[in-house]
Amino acid sequence: MSLHLHPKHGVNPTIPRCFLCGEDKNEVVLLGNAYKDQAPMHMCLDKSPCDKCKGYMQQGIILIGVRDGEQGDNPYRTGHFCVLKEEAIQRAFKDCEGILKSRVAFVDETTWKALGLP
């Protein structure tokens, strides 16, 4: 595997961020000319969880608060983040097989408040 240097920015490094929690991963990625401009200092490159989120996913289900009415693969986040045990998810949601399998779910503000989450 070879890295094609960016003509202006060389190796063009960035620090990847976790798609789930938004924190920096303990990595540096050299993008070279794979990124058209100068790479930002931090950016989300994929949806794979960081080591911390992987640990949370072993403990339970990650819930991420999103703004009411948001849809899609990357909804606007409110900053709420918590981990619930599987039993709590099963009590709170009727059809939760998808949530239990993926180990993460986006929860709108109204539902977040109805569940009494912090």
Summarize the structure.
It is built from four helices and six strands; from the N terminus they run βββαββααβα.
Explain what the structure shows.
- The protein is of the alpha/beta class.
- 24% of the residues lie in helices and 23% in strands.
- The protein has a three-stranded mixed beta sheet with strand order 2-1-3, with no helix packed on it. The chain has a three-stranded mixed beta sheet with strand order 5-4-6.
- The longest helix has 9 residues, at 51-59.
- The relative contact order is 0.17.
General form = elongated
- Number of strand segments: 6
SSE succession: EEEHEEHHEH
Helix count, per DSSP?
Answer: 4
- The total number of structural domains is 2
Overall pLDDT:
95
User: Radius of gyration from the CA trace?
Assistant: 18 Å
**What's the quaternary structure here?**
single chain
Structural class: alpha/beta
| Percent helix | 10-25%
Straight-line distance between termini = 46 Å
Residue runs with pLDDT of under 50 for 5 or more positions = none
Query: Strand order within the widest sheet?
Result: 2-1-3
Please describe the biggest sheet, giving its number of strands, its sense, and whether it closes into a barrel. Answer: 3 strands, mixed
Strand content: 15-25%
